[in-house]
Amino acid sequence: MFFVLFNAFHFMNKFTAAFCKFFLLLVCFVNIHFITGAQLPTCTSSSTPYVYSIANGIYNYDPSQPLSSTNPSLNSIAPPSGADGISVNANLNAASPSPTFYVIDGSDYAYYNGTTWVNTGYSTGAVNPGGGGAYIYSLVGSDGEIWQYNGTANATLLTTITSFNSGGPYDLQGDCAGNFYILRMESTAYLEQYNSAGTLINSWTCSGQNTSTGSGGGFAMIGNTVYAYNSELWTGVISGSNVSFTATGSFTQGSPEDFAACPVGGVSTGANTSDTSFYCGTGVGTTLTTSGQGPFTWSVISGPAVITGSGNSVTVTAASTSLITVLDSNVGGCGTSLDSTLLVVPTATVSAGTPADIVACGTFNYLLNGSLTNTTPWLTYNISWSPAATVLSGGNTMNPAIGPTSTTTYHVTVTTPANEGACAWKDSVLITTVDTSVHANYSYAVKYGCHGDTVMFTNATTRALYYKWVFADGTIDTATNPTHIFVNQGIYNVTLYGINPICDDSITQAVNLVHPLHASFTMDKDSICQGGQIAFTNTSVTTTQNGIGPSYYWTYSDGSSDNTMNTVHTFTAPGVYVVMLAVSDFVPCYDTAYHSIEVDSLPYINLAVSDSLFCQGKGITFTGTYLNEGNTGLIWSFGDNGNTTIYDRNPVEHAYELPGTYTIKFSSNYRFCDDTSVTKNIQVNPYPTINLGPDTVMCPNAAPITLVDNTNAGNAGASWLWSTGVTSPSIIIGGPGTYYATVTIGGCSATDSVTVLQDCYLDIPNAFTPNGDGVNDYFLPRPTLSSGLTSFSMKIFDRWGELLFETTNIDGRGWDGKFNNVMQPQGVYVYIIDVSFYNGVTEHFNGNVTLLH
Q1: Which one, of 760, 784, 759, 755, lies nearest residue 694 by Cα?
Q2: Cβ of 330: how many Cβ atoms within 10 Å?
Q3: DSSP label of 651
Q4: What is the pLDDT of residues 517-534, one digit of tens each?
């Protein structure tokens, strides 16, 4: 009766604290051993729950009593000499006593058999033991190695908890399900629970503890309270996910080396070892599993639960949260035990919201209005929506933002985590999309022209009611399918706007209306000589469309034509020609190009000479005849030693200084035609020499004189012509005069002359002018007025017979018109002159002379 009331009170308290997800149930023991002083450990609900320690003996610490000189108290069971570490658990090596003490004896496990210590002979692998269920675990504090012993062989390495890393205290605690606990009090402190496979199944943080533990004095657990010794005793209470420590005091009996306590009791619920189980209200039910040796008794303490099955595993269903207990009459060293689990039936009402129609321009955004009500307050609810691809944000809420691409049914699923039953509730809502987006598009066809291109546009836009065309030439149109004329060639970015009351769209396409046509050509020359060729290179810019290329037509102004792309033409006649290239394209449009060609006549040249006989030193006139058209210069060369060259004169005159044979060359240069030249050889003869002798004189009535060309008289090729008309080599003359003779030999003539002066004479003037001007200042005698005189006498008288002047000087100056150095008046004076000549003749002259002023 005591057991039932105690546990009912205990489980009702846990039920009222259902919000704590993890909670260690207090172990209830019904076998009460009233043993004082020396005793084996008792692990029943009626016995005092001790914390056992070892330090030169085994001590019993009663947590319900304050620390004192008698608490802890020395146990009468003395450990083996040198024993290290202590553990309380079911006897793994004998049927009784159970539970009992295990210590480390040397390197082996030893247990107390009620009378003495028995060394099992099985090595521990490590010190710092802690047992529970069917195992004893040992810890290597320096590196976190966990060794597992099952009573049948040496301990084996189970796992390594690398995060422990000498974190202290060096000790382990087991539970009745065969799990173990490890406590790290240093920085990054924790309490962790591992199952018998070495897998972490629970973890708690720690606070308030001394973090400088070293190896410490061990730790133990009774219910949800943790005891650890580190210079003093620390007591920690498990609450939620944390263990909160406070300092309790120090053992007066000395610091312990290791702690131990009875295995922690508990009910195993499959993979979930917490004190809370979950059932979603439908289905086959939740399986509850406990460890121990049984037999087991399962009971519904509260709620509408239904238990199916027996043994250590049963199936439970319930319409709402219920409290379930299990009684194990033999829990493998834990004594007769009663444990419980709270079977929670989560609740929830899920609505995905109301259906909606979304009208938009192709991109749909909406906020769903789902709701989640009637939930169990302390549970976690996870929300997810599908299809997730179109959930934009808030997918873990009841009001996500969505972006559907089409009409979509959205499904919401609300679940609790796996450790809270993995229950699920679902709902869905239809979201209808109405797409009013405009998709602008068009095609076009071009009709090309020579003075503008016509483009027919075909509108392929969807969902638009109004249109606007922008043609990129400064004009717009609002027709659905416009036809537009582009005056100028080019690439036009034509934009179509499609519009409805909600949406709009546009598209721009490049309309290429570039189809240039420009006729042009080049020539390898633009001027030639008659009969020459010119190569024409077509440089026209054209366009090929639809496989239709350009065509060409050439004319040359000489009646001929050609239709090749490039051409070569011969111009057979001189003149100025206009060459035309006409080009047509695919439209067809036309363009023409022109160039003028100048064709010069074939040149001619000749040379004429002014005479047929050429004489040394005589100028010769040379006249060239040539084609003047296109002439760029004339050159004369005469072949004489002077290498005389004359440019750009016609006719020209040239004389040869020396006789000989000479070649004359006349050249005419042309701009287009080849330069031409002509040569002519001529013979230049020397002039003959003629000498008629010195001049001579003759007196009146003297004998005739013979004049003769003694130089050429014997030359049969010579001919003469005298000034008297005689053509013989000599002539006979009878009086004074100048006589000429011209001799001609080889066409060249030379002339000489002889003057025959009158000799034996006197010339008397009839007047003179003695005025000092140097002209006729004297009256006789003068050499120029006489010849052949041998004597001379002259007297001058005035009209009254007075002698004014007298002289006998043959070569004197004569009378100067003065008498006694006085100039005589102008007038007539009388002279008397007597002369003798060298031929013996004498003469007497008298007469008048006039003196003039």
Answers
A1: 755
A2: 16
A3: S
A4: 999 999 999 999 999 999
